[in-house]
Design goal:
- The chain has helices at residues 7-34, 39-42, 46-67, 69-77, 99-104, 138-155, 173-185, 197-206, 216-228, 233-236, 251-261, 374-381, 417-431, and strands spanning 118-123, 133-137, 162-165, 188-190, 211-214, 241-244, 264-271, 276-282, 289-291, 296-301, 315-321, 332-338, 340-341, 353-354, 359-360, 365-367, 370-372, 387-398, 400-409, 436-441, 455-457.
- It is α/β, with parallel strands linked by helices and 462 residues long.
- The protein folds into three domains: 7-35, no CATH class; 133-360, ANL, N-terminal domain (Rossmann fold), CATH 3.40.50.12780; 365-457, GMP Synthetase, Chain A, domain 3.
- The longest helix is centred in the N-terminal third of the chain and has 28 residues, at 7-34.
- The N and C termini lie far apart (100 Å).
Length: 462
Amino acid sequence: MEGEVGPNQVDTLSVCVLAQVIYPLFRVVEPRRISLFERKKQLLKPKELKRIQLDRLRKLVRYSYRNVPLFRKRFDEAHVKPESIKALEDLERVPFTVKTDLRDNYPLGILAVPRTKLYCLHASSGTTGKPIVVSYTHGDLERWGRLVGRTLDVAGVRKGDIVQNMFGYGLFTGGLGFHYGARALGATVIPTGTGNTKRQLMLMNDLRSAVVTCTPSYMVYLCEASRAEGYEPRKDFAVRIGVFGAEPWSEEARKRIEDVFGLSARDVYGMTELYGPGVAIECEQRNGLHVWGDEFLVETINPDTGEVLAPGKEGELVFTMLSREAMPLLRYRTRDLSRVFEEECGCGRCHPRIQRIKGRSDDMLIIGGVNVFPSQIEHVLMNISGLGDQYQIIVSHRELDRLAVKVEATPDRLNDLALRMEIRSDLMAVLGINADVELVELGALPRSDGKARRVIDLRPRE
């Protein structure tokens, strides 16, 4: 009858109403339901994560004691027996490993397997003295690749994405680490490596790269270089995700990159000694970097005393690798300063999070008795209009320590005394010390396609 609703119409209306209510909910959870690489491992709950950590820690301690003479010696000196490590709380009884241990045992002193089982060797990118050599079995390489795959997945990289990998290939772990991870995830890699900026930009445009990986300082330089080459980054490029690491960087640098390219910039953490990249990554919440707790135990300690700190307290990050075969590391002191948070993240992951790296305890400058981190200076400069992206920090000593900051400025403000005074005032407010400020032309300071050399310390060495 006219005006009445039949059974089929009721069903149709019901479906429409339900779709309007339920579909938005499914849209919210869709990425987690269908897109996660190694989904079960990413979404481990605290109880299961702790069980895995303890099981692997106990095996690791016995394995390291049995196969690495250095660790056996350290345990015996500390009067610690491997079988006495029965709980995660016992970890603090395990002796620390430090970078000098790796250098003192160059090249392969910390090796737990016969050399015939090694598939790959990498080395630190340091330019002084002997490098730190790190070794991998076939299982280590597989594990590392999947860890980086997980890491890229959290950043939003998907199967089929074109990843332009601008980290250095070779002994440095960055290039091959991201290469392995992208392939494990099913992405397409452009292995451009470092340098040749014009070609990088051409390929980024022509091949429609969706993801870029490099140091944040190089990406800041690409912001400048792309416009100098006549590109409009938001219009001419298709990059939606940038994964940046290997050096500390500020929120202001992140904003600069995102504003110019229109991408989502994610911070990644890793180091040569700990496989390479893939130790930790920011999720969409941006409230810290998730450390893959099934593969790494992370602590913070007082860098001066070695005392273990409670979660949330700032200190030096210490990592224990839970599955490494060729070169296990127990309580490795990174010198990186951060905080650890154990609460569940809004993204649903329960892996511990570390705050973005503030700096390194051994990179901290002591100027006239005041502790100064380069990241503090970058924070000030990136918030002042009229300045370029490049700067240098110069420390000298003439009777007293002196701090100078050399920074590029736009042509209209190059001789602006008020700008210099603004910079001096803001640096004084943040650092608590006076700084000499020199404004130089855009393009006057050296550029880097890897880690930027920001600090020049001219003080005489004792």
